[in-house]
Structure formats: structure tokens, C-alpha cells
Write a structure and sequence with these properties.
This protein has 141 residues and is an all-alpha fold. It has a domain of 94 residues. Helix 1 runs antiparallel to helix 4 and helix 3 runs antiparallel to helix 4.
Amino acid sequence: MLEQFVLNDSDLTLLIGAFGATATLIYGAPYSPLSQPFNVIFGHLVSAAVGVTIFQIVGEANWLSAALAVSLAIVAMQMSRSLHPPGGATALIAVVASPEIHELGFLYIIYPVGLGAAILVCVAWVTNNFRTHRSWPEFWL
């Protein structure tokens, strides 16, 4: 009976560690500027692009690729006004992840990162506006 509830590897493709921190922000601190839809979606997208690019250039995950991915993702998010702290983890995951994630290459930006961030924002929009006294987001762009 419990076997039907067991997840296999293909069920976890949208699950990246950074989404846990994103969920904490958009549900626990929904009025923070870091929790707004633009920051969530574009922060993750920009960071994923940086992480994949660093992995393509530097190669194997090591201290240099990890440091470059996270630090350059922060710079890119600052420059694009899309700072979202879990984005740093998204960039790091692109460098240190499993071979399956590395095989995705630049597709990692769209799936699982872009799609996963969009799903999180959609669910947050519904749940954060379910009650009348709460209104989320404060701004879209």
C-alpha cells in the first residue's frame, strides 16, 4: 500500500534545494522585497545561467567553480535588480549537482529552475491571497 507513495528519481526533477529557502521567503516573509515574484523568478533564472556558464567554462566542481558561481550570481542579481538569496544556491547547484543536472546544460535554466520558480510563485499567489486580509505580491516588477 505504501509503495504507491514512494518517489523515484524521475519524480524529483523539479526539486532543487534552493526552492526550500524560496518557499520560506514567499510564505514566511511574503512582504519582503526579496520575496516578490520578479526577484524569485529572475533571481533564480539569472543565477542558474551564471552557474551553468561557470560549469561550462571551469568544468568539474571545485572550490574555484563554486566560489565563482555564487559570487557572480550575486553580482548578476544585483545588476539586474533581482536579488533573491536562494539564487546563490541555484548557481551552486548548477556546479556541484549530479551528472544528470550537468547533462541538462543550459536547459537547467528553464527546467527545473524556471518552471519550478514559476510554480512556486503561482502557488504563493493563490495561497497568500486566499484570505482577504492578505495581499501578495506587493509588486510584480
